[in-house]
Amino acid sequence: MNYGVIVVGGGPVGLMVASELALANVKVCLLERLQETTPYSRALTIHPRTLEILDMRGMTPELLERGRPIPRGHFAGLPTPLDFSILDSASNYTLFLAQSETEKLLEERAKVLGVAIFRETEVKSIRQHDEGVEVTAIGAEGEYRLTAEYAVGADGGGSLVRKQLGIAFLGTDATFTGMLGDVKLPDLEPGKTVSQFTEQGGIMIVPVTEHIYRVIVFDNERMAIAKDEPVTLDELKSSMLRVYGQDFGIREAQWLSRFGNATRQAEHFSKNRVFLAGDAAHIHLPAGGQGMNVGLQEAVNLGWKLAAKLNGWAPDWLLDSYHEERYPVSTALLRNTEAQALLIRQLPGVMELRKLMASLLQIPEANALLSDQISAFNVGYAPDPHSPSHALNGRRFSELTLRLESGSLLKSYKLMHAGSYVLLHLAGDSQFGELVDWEKYGHVEGVQASIAEAGTGWENVHTALIRPDGYIAWAIDRTETAPLEAVNAGLARWCEPG
Ligand SMILES: Cc1cc2nc3c(=O)[nH]c(=O)nc-3n(C[C@H](O)[C@H](O)[C@H](O)COP(=O)(O)OP(=O)(O)OC[C@H]3O[C@@H](n4cnc5c(N)ncnc54)[C@H](O)[C@@H]3O)c2cc1C
Hints:
Keywords: FAD, Flavoprotein. This protein is α+β, with helices and mostly antiparallel strands.
């Protein structure tokens, strides 16, 4: 085999999954038909859970250097913002950063980690058999064939990989479109944002850089136009005037595009040796800024599982858990964007509903419910049925401040930069080091510490196993009658083949 894994598509999701694999020493290549990362701003928001995950890989300083933290999100452009500042995390904000910048950052990291990136290389076919996968691609030197043990289709909404695997893309076609432009608005006060929905339509304006603004318009008179119909600057300008009454001197478009509410989901996220992630697995109205975020979370869910399989320590059920865990999360994403589409479309009919929703969002609990959804803080996985029951099992690993045996303090996400399992022993049992077979579990980082600061649920934890993607595999309570036996049984279930 040429590679452990071939990743098809070098958008944010392909770059992330390839990096996760390389981090775990898997030989991985990425095939991308474009010469360079996207020049377009596309996804502008990196939401709190994605920021946490990127923090677990040590990327926060570079992200903060390039992006702008904003402590709020929105749902369907309702006038009451979602308050992310109340989230229990240091990443309690959305980072405003153009996808063009995010992709550059992800590509730089992928290269440093050793991903073999082949650009201007278009995949033409993919076939699989019992032992591996064969990909045919056309690059600068003509057509060639590559083989690997596994492949990941991160090749976007039109995914060739998905089509060639024969995986159905179930859902509905677009019923309306909106327009966007990255433009100069010389008559808009610097840094100002606009969000307004009326009977005529909706408009949202946010700064992308110092001089460029993202303008999104839903103009009732132009929402039936097909997505592929190009947008002109004049069209955007007239729609701004119709919907908002001002065009702020709009000029110099860097990007004009139309997007729709087609909503589809791959029937299954894998077929034998090939996996789908990101837009290849689901498309929807880009409302609330979630598509790239969910795709990056899928990449991180899949990467360590494939690496575990290739590195020889994956339990039998691990690869199947990718679909089992992520399919329902993306179903929830699709339903959430469909609800937003209803609040955006047919504005004359829904204006009263928008007002009602906006007032309900002033109730902190209602606001927190939607903030949890858009930030993805509500995502958790089914608790391990064989582990002693614990409220933390399957939950998001929120950052702890640990006091190490030396007395120094450590933020727990730092332990996850290498993408390994982390076994946190918090009960100060002096025998702990000897009772775990560290030679067998070389891929698990063991840490003995006490908790200096933590959210709820950690008060009485004896030991917890943290997955490489930042979820809690299991936690053993100190009241457990034989905690060390439970720890070893948990390690055997999660960290050994069979
Ligand atoms: C207007 C707009 C605004 C958005 N705003 C947000 C936002 O704020 N937040 C958010 O999270 N998401 C947002 N999104 C969604 C986000 O842009 C996508 O979800 C994200 O790009 C998906 O990443 P991906 O890597 O799965 O797919 P893509 O970014 O589509 O990447 C797929 C890559 O595969 C390559 N490829 C395809 N076929 C082949 C082939 N046969 N061979 C080789 N290479 C191939 C393509 O060239 C492409 O580079 C927005 C989208 C739009 C359109």
